[in-house]
UniProtKB/TrEMBL annotation:
This is Four helix bundle protein. Pfam families: 23S_rRNA_IVP. It comes from Mariniflexile jejuense.
Amino acid sequence: MKEALKKRTKLFAHNCIKITSLLPNSYLANHIKGQLIRCSTSVAANYRATCIVQSKASFIAKISIVIEEVDESNFWLEFISDENLIEKEKIEFLMKESAELTAIFMASRKTASTNNQ
């Protein structure tokens, strides 16, 4: 499962980066590009870090960062859609993926927190 999620989060980051190339060249779009690239790649990098932590507390802290970053990625994707910067059909799969990843990581955190008590 860890390896599958490593691949999935890395693919999510790659796809978010690719989507940013479709954004127009404007101040707003350039800001969104940077933010989406930063938070989506952080999802993948921080998930990898959860796989090597040495304690439950460290895992919970790291997975919480992953949840925040994937939720922020979802925010920027929604923002792109709301502003009609890219056709919604081209980013729906990423919005769905970010929602699924959020659910997976929230469930992992809940399990770890419950087992930590």
